[in-house]
Amino acid sequence: MLIEDTVRVFEPSSTPASPESDIPTLKVSSEEHRRDYARTLCEAINQWATRSRLRLSGRIFVSRKFGIGLLTITKAEQLEFCVEQESPEQIEETLGQIQKLLVRGGQHVAYLRGFSLFEKDRVHILKPLNLRHWTRTAALNDADQLVDAFLTGDS
User: Fold this and answer.
1) In whole angstroms, how far apart are CA 57 and each of 65, 101, 112?
2) Disulfide: which of 29, 57, 71, 126 matches 115 by Cβ 3.0-4.6 Å?
3) pLDDT tens-digit readout, 81-127
4) Residues spanned by the domain of 13
């Protein structure tokens, strides 16, 4: 999958034919891209935690209005397939929760990119809809970062 992402997305983006060329990493990801990302991320973590009976499952909320997607990962008894739905309301609500948590010294977060919020029973991952954030390569990198944050107590 790393080679496929490199050939299909990253290499053409790093060497566009002309300034007017379509750059794959900047295109808006499709529902299929986001589903593959979520499935890859959950499966990677589930594979690393094979001794645990619990499995991670994901649900994606998308807001084309804001140009962002929100993946919420929860623990489940069995693996559930990722469901995506258009939900600017869910994203607005989660952004409000994030902003309340991150208000420090009177300063507010104005722009979030590639942000993860750990709650007791779930993790929210907020990403722009651009394809570069929703590749399977990004999923493996994010899975590694999430596990690292969990294991080191940075969550």
Assistant:
1) 25, 24, 23
2) 126
3) 666 767 767 777 777 776 666 555 454 444 444 677 777 778 888 88
4) 2-103+111-152
For residue 37, how far is the Cα from the chain centroid?
A: 7
pLDDT in tens, 5-52: 888 888 888 887 777 778 888 898 999 999 999 999 998 988 887 777
CA atoms of 29 and 116, how far apart (whole Å)? 19
Total structural domains within the chain: 1
The pTM of this model reads 0.77
Tokens of 135: 């590749």
